[in-house]
Amino acid sequence: MDVTQWIIFFFVIQVLHGLATWKLYIKAGRQAWEAFVPVYNAIVLMKIINRPWWWTILLFLPIVNLILFPVVWVEIARSFKKNTALDTFLAIFSLGFYSFYLNYAAKDLHHVKERSLQPRTELGDWVSSILFAVVAATIVHTYFIQPFVIPTSSLEKTLLVGDFLFVSKVHYGARTPETTIALPMIHDAIPGTSTPSYFKFPQLPKFRFPAFQSIKRNDIVVFNWPVDTLVDINNENGGVRYKPVDKKTNYVKRCVGLPGDTLSIKEGYVYINGKKNELPDRAKLQFFYKVILNDVSAESIYQKYGITEKYERYVFKTSANNWNKAEFQNYLKVKKIGTEVLKQDSTEVRFLSNLDQKSFDLLKLEIAEKALYVNLTEDLANIMTSDPDVLTVTKDLSNSTTENIFPKSQGYTWNRDFFGPIYIPEAGKTIALNLDNLPLYKRAITAYEGNTLKVKGNQILINDKVVDSYTFTEDYYWMMGDNRHNSQDARMWGFVPFDHVVGKPVLVWMSWDSNAKGINKIRWNRLFTTVGGNGKLTSYFIPFLVLLGLVIGFNKYRKRKKA
Protein backbone atom coordinates (compact mmCIF):
# COMPACT_ATOMS: atom_id res chain seq x y z
CA MET A 1 0.00 0.00 0.00
CA ASP A 2 1.28 3.47 -0.86
CA VAL A 3 0.94 6.57 1.31
CA THR A 4 -2.37 7.63 -0.23
CA GLN A 5 -3.90 4.19 0.28
CA TRP A 6 -2.75 4.19 3.92
CA ILE A 7 -4.29 7.60 4.54
CA ILE A 8 -7.58 6.39 3.11
CA PHE A 9 -7.37 3.20 5.17
CA PHE A 10 -6.59 5.21 8.33
CA PHE A 11 -9.64 7.44 7.91
CA VAL A 12 -11.89 4.46 7.15
CA ILE A 13 -10.80 2.92 10.46
CA GLN A 14 -11.53 6.21 12.25
CA VAL A 15 -15.04 6.32 10.78
CA LEU A 16 -15.67 2.71 11.76
CA HIS A 17 -14.47 3.41 15.28
CA GLY A 18 -16.77 6.44 15.53
CA LEU A 19 -19.76 4.50 14.26
CA ALA A 20 -19.04 1.66 16.68
CA THR A 21 -18.55 3.76 19.82
CA TRP A 22 -20.17 7.22 19.66
CA LYS A 23 -23.06 6.21 21.94
CA LEU A 24 -20.58 4.64 24.36
CA TYR A 25 -18.68 7.95 24.47
CA ILE A 26 -21.95 9.69 25.41
CA LYS A 27 -22.70 7.13 28.14
CA ALA A 28 -19.20 7.83 29.51
CA GLY A 29 -20.00 11.55 29.72
CA ARG A 30 -18.18 12.61 26.58
CA GLN A 31 -19.41 14.15 23.30
CA ALA A 32 -20.39 12.01 20.30
CA TRP A 33 -18.12 13.94 17.92
CA GLU A 34 -15.08 12.99 20.02
CA ALA A 35 -15.40 9.40 18.77
CA PHE A 36 -14.68 10.52 15.19
CA VAL A 37 -11.62 12.78 15.58
CA PRO A 38 -8.44 10.88 14.64
CA VAL A 39 -5.88 10.39 17.45
CA TYR A 40 -7.89 12.59 19.82
CA ASN A 41 -10.57 9.88 19.93
CA ALA A 42 -7.94 7.40 21.15
CA ILE A 43 -6.80 9.76 23.92
CA VAL A 44 -10.42 10.17 25.07
CA LEU A 45 -10.97 6.43 24.81
CA MET A 46 -8.05 5.82 27.19
CA LYS A 47 -9.85 8.02 29.74
CA ILE A 48 -13.07 6.09 29.22
CA ILE A 49 -11.43 2.72 29.82
CA ASN A 50 -9.31 4.17 32.64
CA ARG A 51 -5.96 3.50 30.97
CA PRO A 52 -2.96 5.89 30.66
CA TRP A 53 -2.89 8.33 27.74
CA TRP A 54 0.42 6.95 26.42
CA TRP A 55 -1.37 3.78 25.36
CA THR A 56 -2.40 5.94 22.40
CA ILE A 57 1.20 5.88 21.18
CA LEU A 58 1.28 2.08 21.39
CA LEU A 59 -1.85 1.88 19.24
CA PHE A 60 0.10 3.43 16.37
CA LEU A 61 3.25 1.29 16.65
CA PRO A 62 3.19 -1.53 14.06
CA ILE A 63 3.23 -5.06 15.52
CA VAL A 64 2.79 -3.65 19.06
CA ASN A 65 -0.70 -2.46 18.10
CA LEU A 66 -1.64 -6.00 17.06
CA ILE A 67 -1.10 -7.04 20.68
CA LEU A 68 -2.84 -3.99 22.14
CA PHE A 69 -5.95 -3.84 19.94
CA PRO A 70 -7.56 -6.99 21.45
CA VAL A 71 -6.77 -5.62 24.93
CA VAL A 72 -8.57 -2.36 24.13
CA TRP A 73 -11.58 -4.20 22.69
CA VAL A 74 -11.91 -6.20 25.91
CA GLU A 75 -11.35 -3.08 28.03
CA ILE A 76 -14.20 -1.28 26.24
CA ALA A 77 -16.58 -4.11 27.07
CA ARG A 78 -15.48 -4.29 30.70
CA SER A 79 -15.81 -0.52 31.11
CA PHE A 80 -19.53 -1.06 30.52
CA LYS A 81 -19.89 -4.05 32.88
CA LYS A 82 -19.50 -6.73 30.21
CA ASN A 83 -17.14 -8.95 32.20
CA THR A 84 -18.11 -12.52 31.35
CA ALA A 85 -15.92 -14.96 29.49
CA LEU A 86 -18.39 -14.82 26.60
CA ASP A 87 -18.05 -11.03 26.39
CA THR A 88 -14.26 -11.37 26.28
CA PHE A 89 -14.49 -14.06 23.60
CA LEU A 90 -16.85 -11.99 21.44
CA ALA A 91 -14.79 -8.82 21.81
CA ILE A 92 -11.61 -10.56 20.61
CA PHE A 93 -12.90 -12.94 17.94
CA SER A 94 -15.25 -10.40 16.37
CA LEU A 95 -12.10 -8.27 15.80
CA GLY A 96 -13.63 -5.45 17.80
CA PHE A 97 -16.98 -5.42 16.02
CA TYR A 98 -18.61 -6.48 19.30
CA SER A 99 -18.52 -2.74 20.06
CA PHE A 100 -21.23 -2.25 17.40
CA TYR A 101 -23.49 -4.56 19.43
CA LEU A 102 -22.71 -2.64 22.61
CA ASN A 103 -23.27 0.69 20.86
CA TYR A 104 -26.60 -0.09 19.23
CA ALA A 105 -28.22 -3.21 20.70
CA ALA A 106 -27.06 -3.86 24.25
CA LYS A 107 -29.44 -2.70 26.95
CA ASP A 108 -28.87 -1.22 30.39
CA LEU A 109 -25.28 -0.24 29.71
CA HIS A 110 -23.63 1.79 32.42
CA HIS A 111 -20.12 3.19 32.32
CA VAL A 112 -17.90 2.23 35.26
CA LYS A 113 -16.00 5.45 35.82
CA GLU A 114 -13.47 4.33 38.46
CA ARG A 115 -13.17 0.72 37.34
CA SER A 116 -10.54 -1.35 39.15
CA LEU A 117 -7.71 -2.42 36.86
CA GLN A 118 -6.53 -5.24 39.09
CA PRO A 119 -7.06 -8.72 37.58
CA ARG A 120 -9.76 -10.64 39.41
CA THR A 121 -8.00 -14.01 39.31
CA GLU A 122 -4.45 -15.31 39.60
CA LEU A 123 -4.68 -16.49 35.99
CA GLY A 124 -5.75 -13.01 34.89
CA ASP A 125 -2.81 -11.49 36.74
CA TRP A 126 -0.43 -13.94 35.06
CA VAL A 127 -1.86 -13.24 31.58
CA SER A 128 -1.68 -9.48 32.17
CA SER A 129 1.97 -9.66 33.23
CA ILE A 130 2.96 -11.82 30.25
CA LEU A 131 1.05 -9.60 27.85
CA PHE A 132 2.77 -6.39 28.84
CA ALA A 133 6.15 -8.08 29.07
CA VAL A 134 5.67 -9.06 25.42
CA VAL A 135 4.62 -5.49 24.55
CA ALA A 136 7.71 -4.03 26.24
CA ALA A 137 10.03 -6.61 24.68
CA THR A 138 8.53 -6.02 21.23
CA ILE A 139 9.10 -2.26 21.51
CA VAL A 140 12.73 -2.75 22.57
CA HIS A 141 13.32 -5.43 19.92
CA THR A 142 11.75 -3.40 17.10
CA TYR A 143 13.04 0.09 17.82
CA PHE A 144 16.07 -0.09 20.12
CA ILE A 145 18.08 -3.30 20.63
CA GLN A 146 17.79 -6.66 18.87
CA PRO A 147 19.60 -9.85 19.90
CA PHE A 148 21.52 -11.64 17.15
CA VAL A 149 23.64 -14.78 17.05
CA ILE A 150 26.61 -15.27 14.70
CA PRO A 151 25.81 -18.39 12.62
CA THR A 152 28.80 -18.47 10.23
CA SER A 153 32.53 -17.80 10.23
CA SER A 154 32.51 -14.95 7.68
CA LEU A 155 33.87 -12.51 10.30
CA GLU A 156 35.97 -15.10 12.14
CA LYS A 157 38.62 -13.78 14.55
CA THR A 158 36.57 -10.58 14.92
CA LEU A 159 33.18 -12.20 15.58
CA LEU A 160 33.08 -15.94 16.23
CA VAL A 161 30.47 -18.56 15.46
CA GLY A 162 28.37 -18.74 18.62
CA ASP A 163 28.76 -15.08 19.61
CA PHE A 164 25.49 -13.62 20.91
CA LEU A 165 25.23 -9.92 20.09
CA PHE A 166 23.15 -6.94 21.01
CA VAL A 167 22.48 -4.94 17.84
CA SER A 168 21.68 -1.26 18.24
CA LYS A 169 18.97 0.02 15.91
CA VAL A 170 19.27 3.62 17.02
CA HIS A 171 22.82 4.21 15.72
CA TYR A 172 21.79 4.19 12.05
CA GLY A 173 18.14 5.10 12.72
CA ALA A 174 15.49 2.54 13.66
CA ARG A 175 13.14 1.46 10.88
CA THR A 176 9.42 1.17 11.45
CA PRO A 177 8.21 -2.26 10.31
CA GLU A 178 6.93 -2.45 6.76
CA THR A 179 5.15 -5.69 7.63
CA THR A 180 2.11 -4.78 9.71
CA ILE A 181 0.75 -8.20 10.65
CA ALA A 182 3.32 -10.56 12.18
CA LEU A 183 4.05 -12.57 15.29
CA PRO A 184 6.03 -10.47 17.77
CA MET A 185 9.82 -11.01 17.82
CA ILE A 186 9.68 -13.89 15.31
CA HIS A 187 11.61 -12.87 12.23
CA ASP A 188 10.84 -15.10 9.26
CA ALA A 189 9.19 -18.49 9.76
CA ILE A 190 7.33 -19.89 12.74
CA PRO A 191 9.96 -21.87 14.71
CA GLY A 192 10.13 -25.51 13.66
CA THR A 193 8.19 -24.89 10.44
CA SER A 194 8.56 -23.23 7.05
CA THR A 195 5.31 -21.29 7.57
CA PRO A 196 5.79 -17.50 7.41
CA SER A 197 5.28 -15.71 10.71
CA TYR A 198 3.71 -12.74 8.92
CA PHE A 199 1.23 -11.65 6.26
CA LYS A 200 2.68 -9.97 3.17
CA PHE A 201 -0.24 -7.54 2.98
CA PRO A 202 -0.74 -4.77 3.92
CA GLN A 203 2.70 -3.17 3.86
CA LEU A 204 3.53 0.19 5.43
CA PRO A 205 5.54 2.79 3.47
CA LYS A 206 9.24 2.90 4.37
CA PHE A 207 10.14 5.14 7.30
CA ARG A 208 13.31 5.52 9.32
CA PHE A 209 13.89 7.54 12.47
CA PRO A 210 16.81 9.99 12.46
CA ALA A 211 20.22 8.36 12.92
CA PHE A 212 22.77 9.14 15.61
CA GLN A 213 25.60 8.37 13.19
CA SER A 214 26.18 7.36 9.59
CA ILE A 215 27.74 4.07 8.55
CA LYS A 216 31.50 4.46 8.58
CA ARG A 217 33.99 2.51 6.51
CA ASN A 218 34.88 -0.81 8.18
CA ASP A 219 31.87 -0.69 10.54
CA ILE A 220 30.38 -4.11 11.22
CA VAL A 221 26.74 -3.91 10.12
CA VAL A 222 23.67 -6.13 10.42
CA PHE A 223 21.42 -5.93 7.36
CA ASN A 224 18.70 -7.82 5.51
CA TRP A 225 20.21 -10.09 2.86
CA PRO A 226 19.04 -8.32 -0.33
CA VAL A 227 18.58 -11.42 -2.49
CA ASP A 228 16.88 -13.63 0.10
CA THR A 229 13.93 -15.53 -1.33
CA LEU A 230 14.67 -18.90 0.30
CA VAL A 231 11.94 -20.64 2.29
CA ASP A 232 14.70 -22.35 4.28
CA ILE A 233 17.88 -20.29 4.50
CA ASN A 234 19.90 -23.48 5.06
CA ASN A 235 18.65 -25.09 1.84
CA GLU A 236 19.86 -23.20 -1.23
CA ASN A 237 18.13 -25.68 -3.55
CA GLY A 238 14.79 -25.59 -1.73
CA GLY A 239 11.62 -23.60 -2.38
CA VAL A 240 11.53 -19.84 -2.82
CA ARG A 241 9.02 -17.12 -1.98
CA TYR A 242 8.77 -13.35 -1.99
CA LYS A 243 9.78 -11.73 1.29
CA PRO A 244 9.23 -8.13 2.42
CA VAL A 245 12.49 -6.27 3.11
CA ASP A 246 12.14 -6.42 6.91
CA LYS A 247 11.53 -10.18 6.80
CA LYS A 248 14.58 -11.11 4.76
CA THR A 249 17.32 -13.01 6.59
CA ASN A 250 19.61 -10.94 8.80
CA TYR A 251 23.27 -10.97 7.75
CA VAL A 252 26.31 -9.42 9.44
CA LYS A 253 29.37 -8.24 7.49
CA ARG A 254 31.94 -5.47 7.47
CA CYS A 255 31.10 -2.40 5.39
CA VAL A 256 34.22 -1.83 3.29
CA GLY A 257 32.65 0.37 0.62
CA LEU A 258 30.54 3.52 1.12
CA PRO A 259 28.24 5.41 -1.28
CA GLY A 260 30.30 7.19 -3.90
CA ASP A 261 33.36 4.93 -3.52
CA THR A 262 35.01 3.12 -6.40
CA LEU A 263 36.00 -0.32 -5.11
CA SER A 264 38.29 -3.00 -6.46
CA ILE A 265 39.80 -6.20 -5.06
CA LYS A 266 43.34 -7.29 -5.81
CA GLU A 267 44.72 -10.54 -4.41
CA GLY A 268 41.88 -10.55 -1.90
CA TYR A 269 42.59 -7.04 -0.57
CA VAL A 270 40.06 -4.24 -0.95
CA TYR A 271 41.11 -0.97 -2.58
CA ILE A 272 38.98 2.16 -2.28
CA ASN A 273 39.51 4.84 -4.92
CA GLY A 274 42.85 3.20 -5.69
CA LYS A 275 44.08 3.09 -2.09
CA LYS A 276 44.34 -0.11 -0.05
CA ASN A 277 41.68 -0.27 2.67
CA GLU A 278 43.22 -0.29 6.16
CA LEU A 279 41.24 -2.42 8.61
CA PRO A 280 41.05 -1.90 12.39
CA ASP A 281 43.70 -3.80 14.36
CA ARG A 282 41.07 -6.20 15.74
CA ALA A 283 40.15 -7.30 12.22
CA LYS A 284 42.10 -10.33 11.01
CA LEU A 285 41.81 -11.20 7.35
CA GLN A 286 41.73 -14.91 6.59
CA PHE A 287 42.45 -16.72 3.34
CA PHE A 288 42.77 -20.34 2.34
CA TYR A 289 46.40 -21.37 1.94
CA LYS A 290 47.79 -24.41 0.16
CA VAL A 291 50.13 -26.16 2.58
CA ILE A 292 52.52 -28.98 1.63
CA LEU A 293 53.85 -30.97 4.62
CA ASN A 294 57.23 -32.55 5.21
CA ASP A 295 56.32 -36.15 6.09
CA VAL A 296 54.08 -35.38 9.09
CA SER A 297 50.40 -36.07 9.62
CA ALA A 298 47.84 -33.45 8.70
CA GLU A 299 46.10 -33.93 12.02
CA SER A 300 49.21 -32.95 13.95
CA ILE A 301 49.36 -29.65 12.03
CA TYR A 302 45.64 -29.00 12.62
CA GLN A 303 46.08 -29.46 16.36
CA LYS A 304 49.34 -27.55 16.53
CA TYR A 305 47.86 -24.41 14.97
CA GLY A 306 44.22 -24.75 16.03
CA ILE A 307 43.01 -25.05 12.44
CA THR A 308 39.27 -25.72 12.08
CA GLU A 309 38.49 -24.79 8.46
CA LYS A 310 40.32 -27.09 6.10
CA TYR A 311 40.12 -29.65 3.32
CA GLU A 312 42.65 -31.91 1.63
CA ARG A 313 43.63 -32.71 -1.95
CA TYR A 314 46.14 -35.15 -3.40
CA VAL A 315 49.22 -34.01 -5.30
CA PHE A 316 49.75 -36.33 -8.26
CA LYS A 317 53.04 -37.06 -10.00
CA THR A 318 54.10 -38.59 -13.26
CA SER A 319 57.22 -38.70 -15.40
CA ALA A 320 57.98 -35.79 -17.69
CA ASN A 321 57.84 -38.18 -20.66
CA ASN A 322 54.35 -39.37 -19.74
CA TRP A 323 53.14 -35.79 -19.15
CA ASN A 324 54.38 -34.63 -22.56
CA LYS A 325 52.68 -37.42 -24.51
CA ALA A 326 49.96 -36.21 -26.87
CA GLU A 327 47.62 -38.95 -25.62
CA PHE A 328 48.01 -37.72 -22.02
CA GLN A 329 47.25 -34.07 -22.85
CA ASN A 330 44.40 -34.97 -25.21
CA TYR A 331 42.77 -37.06 -22.50
CA LEU A 332 42.85 -34.11 -20.11
CA LYS A 333 41.40 -31.86 -22.80
CA VAL A 334 38.59 -34.22 -23.86
CA LYS A 335 37.58 -34.98 -20.26
CA LYS A 336 37.91 -31.28 -19.36
CA ILE A 337 40.20 -32.09 -16.46
CA GLY A 338 41.90 -29.02 -15.08
CA THR A 339 45.39 -29.20 -13.62
CA GLU A 340 47.57 -26.93 -11.50
CA VAL A 341 51.25 -27.69 -11.97
CA LEU A 342 53.21 -27.40 -8.73
CA LYS A 343 56.59 -28.63 -9.93
CA GLN A 344 57.95 -29.50 -13.35
CA ASP A 345 61.46 -30.46 -14.44
CA SER A 346 63.12 -32.73 -16.98
CA THR A 347 62.25 -35.89 -15.07
CA GLU A 348 58.98 -35.33 -13.16
CA VAL A 349 55.78 -33.29 -13.03
CA ARG A 350 53.71 -32.77 -9.87
CA PHE A 351 50.23 -31.28 -10.14
CA LEU A 352 46.85 -30.84 -8.47
CA SER A 353 43.66 -31.99 -10.15
CA ASN A 354 40.19 -33.34 -9.46
CA LEU A 355 40.61 -36.84 -10.85
CA ASP A 356 38.46 -39.91 -10.48
CA GLN A 357 39.99 -43.35 -9.92
CA LYS A 358 39.51 -44.40 -13.56
CA SER A 359 41.48 -41.41 -14.88
CA PHE A 360 44.13 -41.93 -12.24
CA ASP A 361 44.67 -45.50 -13.44
CA LEU A 362 44.53 -44.74 -17.18
CA LEU A 363 47.07 -41.92 -16.92
CA LYS A 364 49.41 -44.12 -14.84
CA LEU A 365 49.78 -41.59 -12.06
CA GLU A 366 51.23 -41.81 -8.58
CA ILE A 367 50.30 -39.95 -5.41
CA ALA A 368 53.16 -37.73 -4.35
CA GLU A 369 51.64 -36.16 -1.24
CA LYS A 370 48.59 -34.50 0.20
CA ALA A 371 48.03 -30.77 -0.20
CA LEU A 372 46.22 -29.21 2.74
CA TYR A 373 43.95 -26.25 2.14
CA VAL A 374 43.64 -24.44 5.45
CA ASN A 375 42.05 -21.14 6.43
CA LEU A 376 44.66 -18.93 8.11
CA THR A 377 45.28 -15.38 9.17
CA GLU A 378 48.28 -13.80 7.51
CA ASP A 379 50.18 -13.82 10.82
CA LEU A 380 49.63 -17.55 11.27
CA ALA A 381 50.60 -18.25 7.66
CA ASN A 382 53.91 -16.42 8.22
CA ILE A 383 54.58 -18.47 11.35
CA MET A 384 53.92 -21.72 9.47
CA THR A 385 56.41 -20.86 6.73
CA SER A 386 59.25 -21.21 9.26
CA ASP A 387 57.96 -24.54 10.61
CA PRO A 388 60.36 -27.40 9.63
CA ASP A 389 57.33 -29.72 9.28
CA VAL A 390 55.95 -27.52 6.51
CA LEU A 391 57.48 -27.42 3.03
CA THR A 392 55.44 -24.61 1.44
CA VAL A 393 52.62 -22.23 2.35
CA THR A 394 50.98 -20.53 -0.62
CA LYS A 395 47.90 -18.30 -0.62
CA ASP A 396 45.20 -19.99 -2.71
CA LEU A 397 44.32 -17.07 -4.97
CA SER A 398 41.71 -17.67 -7.63
CA ASN A 399 42.52 -17.45 -11.33
CA SER A 400 39.03 -18.49 -12.42
CA THR A 401 37.02 -16.52 -14.98
CA THR A 402 33.79 -18.47 -14.46
CA GLU A 403 33.00 -18.11 -10.75
CA ASN A 404 29.45 -17.37 -9.55
CA ILE A 405 30.37 -13.73 -8.94
CA PHE A 406 28.35 -10.53 -9.24
CA PRO A 407 27.10 -9.37 -11.72
CA LYS A 408 26.99 -12.89 -13.23
CA SER A 409 27.00 -11.56 -16.76
CA GLN A 410 29.01 -12.28 -19.87
CA GLY A 411 31.83 -9.83 -20.24
CA TYR A 412 32.62 -9.83 -16.52
CA THR A 413 35.33 -12.33 -15.60
CA TRP A 414 35.88 -11.19 -12.02
CA ASN A 415 36.45 -13.69 -9.22
CA ARG A 416 36.62 -13.71 -5.41
CA ASP A 417 40.20 -12.37 -5.30
CA PHE A 418 40.32 -10.09 -8.35
CA PHE A 419 37.25 -7.91 -8.71
CA GLY A 420 36.21 -4.52 -10.07
CA PRO A 421 36.64 -1.63 -10.26
CA ILE A 422 32.99 -0.90 -9.47
CA TYR A 423 31.28 2.37 -8.50
CA ILE A 424 29.05 2.15 -5.42
CA PRO A 425 25.90 4.26 -6.01
CA GLU A 426 25.21 7.34 -3.92
CA ALA A 427 21.80 8.99 -3.53
CA GLY A 428 21.44 11.97 -5.85
CA LYS A 429 24.44 11.05 -8.00
CA THR A 430 24.07 10.43 -11.74
CA ILE A 431 26.01 7.87 -13.76
CA ALA A 432 26.27 7.28 -17.49
CA LEU A 433 24.27 4.14 -18.26
CA ASN A 434 25.08 1.84 -21.16
CA LEU A 435 24.85 -1.82 -22.10
CA ASP A 436 28.33 -2.48 -20.69
CA ASN A 437 27.66 -1.32 -17.12
CA LEU A 438 23.93 -2.09 -17.05
CA PRO A 439 24.46 -5.54 -15.42
CA LEU A 440 26.08 -3.79 -12.43
CA TYR A 441 23.15 -1.47 -11.73
CA LYS A 442 20.09 -3.23 -13.15
CA ARG A 443 19.00 -4.74 -9.83
CA ALA A 444 19.45 -1.45 -7.97
CA ILE A 445 17.37 0.39 -10.58
CA THR A 446 14.57 -2.18 -10.64
CA ALA A 447 14.37 -4.25 -7.45
CA TYR A 448 15.56 -1.58 -5.01
CA GLU A 449 14.34 1.65 -6.60
CA GLY A 450 11.14 0.31 -8.17
CA ASN A 451 11.60 1.19 -11.85
CA THR A 452 10.81 -0.84 -14.94
CA LEU A 453 13.73 -1.47 -17.27
CA LYS A 454 13.83 -2.85 -20.80
CA VAL A 455 16.51 -3.22 -23.44
CA LYS A 456 15.56 -2.79 -27.09
CA GLY A 457 18.48 -3.23 -29.41
CA ASN A 458 21.12 -0.77 -28.19
CA GLN A 459 18.62 1.32 -26.26
CA ILE A 460 17.87 1.21 -22.52
CA LEU A 461 14.35 2.15 -21.46
CA ILE A 462 13.54 3.05 -17.84
CA ASN A 463 9.85 3.49 -17.15
CA ASP A 464 9.36 3.33 -20.96
CA LYS A 465 11.70 6.27 -21.61
CA VAL A 466 14.98 5.95 -23.51
CA VAL A 467 17.88 6.92 -21.21
CA ASP A 468 21.66 7.14 -21.30
CA SER A 469 22.09 8.04 -17.61
CA TYR A 470 20.49 7.31 -14.26
CA THR A 471 20.26 9.23 -10.96
CA PHE A 472 20.10 7.04 -7.87
CA THR A 473 17.59 7.78 -5.12
CA GLU A 474 19.22 5.72 -2.39
CA ASP A 475 22.64 5.12 -0.84
CA TYR A 476 24.29 1.72 -1.30
CA TYR A 477 27.03 -0.12 0.59
CA TRP A 478 29.52 -2.91 -0.07
CA MET A 479 29.51 -5.57 2.66
CA MET A 480 32.23 -8.23 2.95
CA GLY A 481 33.47 -10.82 5.41
CA ASP A 482 36.98 -10.81 6.86
CA ASN A 483 37.09 -14.54 6.11
CA ARG A 484 37.68 -13.79 2.45
CA HIS A 485 37.52 -17.34 1.10
CA ASN A 486 34.56 -18.47 3.18
CA SER A 487 32.04 -15.64 3.09
CA GLN A 488 28.76 -15.20 1.25
CA ASP A 489 28.96 -11.46 0.66
CA ALA A 490 28.66 -8.59 -1.81
CA ARG A 491 31.00 -10.30 -4.26
CA MET A 492 28.17 -12.77 -4.87
CA TRP A 493 25.10 -10.50 -4.83
CA GLY A 494 26.21 -6.88 -5.10
CA PHE A 495 25.08 -3.74 -3.34
CA VAL A 496 23.14 -3.38 -0.08
CA PRO A 497 20.66 -0.47 -0.16
CA PHE A 498 20.37 1.62 3.00
CA ASP A 499 16.75 0.60 3.55
CA HIS A 500 18.05 -2.96 4.14
CA VAL A 501 20.34 -1.86 7.00
CA VAL A 502 19.14 -3.16 10.39
CA GLY A 503 21.67 -1.85 12.88
CA LYS A 504 25.10 -1.84 14.45
CA PRO A 505 26.39 -4.67 16.70
CA VAL A 506 27.65 -3.09 19.91
CA LEU A 507 28.13 -5.86 22.49
CA VAL A 508 28.94 -9.58 22.70
CA TRP A 509 26.98 -10.54 25.82
CA MET A 510 27.51 -14.30 25.46
CA SER A 511 29.78 -16.57 23.43
CA TRP A 512 29.27 -20.32 23.07
CA ASP A 513 31.82 -22.75 21.61
CA SER A 514 29.93 -25.86 20.54
CA ASN A 515 33.21 -27.74 19.92
CA ALA A 516 34.42 -27.37 23.51
CA LYS A 517 33.41 -29.42 26.53
CA GLY A 518 31.82 -28.64 29.87
CA ILE A 519 32.30 -25.19 31.32
CA ASN A 520 34.78 -24.38 28.57
CA LYS A 521 31.90 -24.17 26.11
CA ILE A 522 31.50 -20.63 27.38
CA ARG A 523 34.19 -18.31 26.00
CA TRP A 524 34.60 -16.40 29.25
CA ASN A 525 37.02 -13.85 27.82
CA ARG A 526 34.39 -12.72 25.28
CA LEU A 527 31.50 -12.08 27.68
CA PHE A 528 30.39 -8.44 27.65
CA THR A 529 33.01 -7.33 25.16
CA THR A 530 32.50 -4.49 22.70
CA VAL A 531 32.29 -5.25 19.00
CA GLY A 532 33.99 -2.12 17.69
CA GLY A 533 37.09 -0.28 18.77
CA ASN A 534 40.81 -0.87 18.61
CA GLY A 535 43.30 -2.49 20.94
CA LYS A 536 43.08 -5.64 22.98
CA LEU A 537 39.65 -7.17 23.51
CA THR A 538 38.45 -6.38 27.05
CA SER A 539 35.68 -8.21 28.90
CA TYR A 540 33.39 -6.15 31.13
CA PHE A 541 31.75 -9.24 32.63
CA ILE A 542 33.19 -8.77 36.13
CA PRO A 543 32.21 -5.08 36.31
CA PHE A 544 28.74 -6.10 35.11
CA LEU A 545 28.44 -8.68 37.91
CA VAL A 546 29.60 -6.11 40.47
CA LEU A 547 27.07 -3.56 39.23
CA LEU A 548 24.30 -6.18 39.20
CA GLY A 549 25.18 -7.18 42.79
CA LEU A 550 25.04 -3.53 43.91
CA VAL A 551 21.62 -3.03 42.32
CA ILE A 552 20.22 -6.19 43.91
CA GLY A 553 21.73 -5.27 47.29
CA PHE A 554 20.31 -1.73 47.12
CA ASN A 555 16.83 -3.01 46.28
CA LYS A 556 16.89 -5.44 49.22
CA TYR A 557 18.11 -2.67 51.56
CA ARG A 558 15.32 -0.35 50.39
CA LYS A 559 12.65 -3.02 50.93
CA ARG A 560 13.90 -3.72 54.46
CA LYS A 561 13.93 -0.01 55.26
CA LYS A 562 10.33 0.37 54.06
CA ALA A 563 9.28 -2.66 56.11
From TrEMBL:
Sorted UniProt keywords: Hydrolase, Membrane, Protease, Transmembrane, Transmembrane helix
Keyword Manganese in record: no
Gene3D superfamilies referenced in this protein's UniProt entry, alphabetically: Umud Fragment, subunit A
CDD domains per the UniProt record, alphabetical: S26_SPase_I
Keyword Phosphoprotein among record annotations: no
Pfam families (alphabetical): DUF5684, Peptidase_S26
Source species, domain of life: Bacteria
Main location: membrane
EC identifiers of the protein: 3.4.21.89
Recorded catalytic activity of this chain's protein: Cleavage of hydrophobic, N-terminal signal or leader sequences from secreted and periplasmic proteins
Subcellular location as annotated: Membrane
InterPro entries cross-referenced by the UniProt entry: DUF5684, LexA/Signal_pep-like_sf, Pept_S26A_signal_pept_1, Peptidase_S26
Transmembrane residue ranges: 6-26, 53-73, 85-105, 126-145, 537-554
Family statement drawn from the similarity comment of this UniProt entry: Belongs to the peptidase S26 family.
NCBIfam families according to UniProt: sigpep_I_bact
Official protein name in the record: Signal peptidase I
Organism annotation: Olleya marilimosa
Name of the encoding gene: lepB
